[in-house]
Q: What sequence folds into this?
């Protein structure tokens, strides 16, 4: 027989925030990436792919491709490759899909034979890839690339795309709720500033793409609710973003708390308060931006 507790809805149960000592991180020389590279992060990235996919009504590939029998695809900073594996299931088996990342531990252990992976930085792609790919995907490198590295990465993508090929970027835009959210955003911006990341990269992607020589630059935005007020969809996105913030804890503490927190307990308390605010503030939401563009023929 179930108890009353068993029957209580679990939708708003808070996300557990792991201790920093339980997380592991990449050690790729020179890479600025601050989020963890471990099992919990793999699971989070897989769930995050589904949240993005749902927000775009199940569509993961936005550029207006002319139908072709097979495609050469690169996922730049693929992580566990939830996007690439999903795309693979939608393309003919003659397509060739490749993921690169600075962290081998994130790659999936099993995958179809037309999918492969290698270790590389998005800022320095192999010379032999020039004009190779029909499509390049790069999503959520906000906490990875310094301001100047975005230009480098776009130049590399432009080079490895075949003429007429498409690139698709995905990044988070504005997120809003109440005063705790605002303070948290300030902390994230301070972290970005301290590491040389570009806090406004999402809005700047179209301009940078044009500057890199791309044409047909197109932006599509969706908003996703954050918090229990929006039911299960809000809880799922809340859990995912809280896990992103939990992953930033090490970087914030290493930076001395950036004037927002002093101890790990402060950080965890701040994050729990943020969850509560999202749960209780109707209208809390976050924007997803997909920006796609074409290399001229
Ligand atoms: C937030 S995750 C996003 C993963 C994947 N794109 C997705 O949407 O699920 C960022 C990924 O970029 C990788 N990364 C960070 N810096 C990189 C770099 N300089 N070159 C290649 N990959 C990088 C990280 O290891 C991580 O897998």
A:
């Amino acid at each position: 027989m179930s108890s009353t507790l068993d029957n209580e809805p679990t939708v708003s149960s808070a996300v557990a925030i792991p201790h920093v000592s339980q997380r592991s991180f990449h050690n790729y020389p020179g890479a600025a990436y601050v989020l963890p590279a471990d099992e919990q992060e793999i699971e989070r990235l897989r769930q995050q792919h589904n949240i993005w996919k749902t927000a775009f009504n199940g569509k993961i590939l936005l550029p207006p491709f002319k139908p072709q029998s097979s495609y050469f695809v690169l996922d730049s900073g693929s992580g566990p490759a939830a996007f690439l594996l999903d795309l693979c299931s939608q393309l003919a088996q003659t397509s060739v899909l490749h993921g690169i990342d600075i962290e081998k531990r994130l790659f999936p252990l099993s995958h179809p034979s037309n999918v492969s992976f290698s270790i590389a930085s998005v800022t320095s792609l192999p010379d032999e890839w020039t004009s190779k790919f029909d499509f390049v995907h790069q999503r959520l490198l906000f906490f990875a690339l310094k301001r100047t590295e975005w230009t480098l990465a776009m130049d590399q993508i432009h080079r490895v795309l075949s003429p007429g090929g498409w690139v698709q970027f995905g990044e988070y835009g504005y997120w809003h709720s109440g005063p705790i959210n605002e303070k948290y955003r300030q902390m994230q911006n301070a972290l970005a500033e301290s590491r040389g990341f570009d806090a406004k990269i999402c809005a700047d992607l179209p301009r940078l793409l044009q500057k890199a020589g791309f044409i047909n630059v197109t932006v599509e935005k969706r908003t996703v609710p954050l918090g229990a007020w929006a039911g299960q969809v809000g809880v799922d996105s809340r859990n995912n973003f809280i896990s992103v913030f939990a992953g930033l804890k090490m970087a914030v503490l290493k930076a001395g708390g950036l004037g927002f927190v002093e101890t790990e307990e402060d950080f965890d308390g701040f994050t729990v308060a943020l969850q509560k605010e999202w749960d209780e503030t109707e209208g809390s939401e976050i924007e997803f931006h997909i920006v796609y563009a074409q290399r001229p023929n």
Q: What stands out?
A: Residues 26, 31, 33, 35, 37, 45, 49, 77-79, 82-83, 100-103, 106, 121-123, 139-141, 144 surround S-adenosylmethionine (CB under 6 Å). The chain has one domain: 18-294. Strands lie at 72-76, 96-101, 115-119, 133-139, 161-176, 215-225, 285-294. The first strand starts at residue 72 and ends at 76.
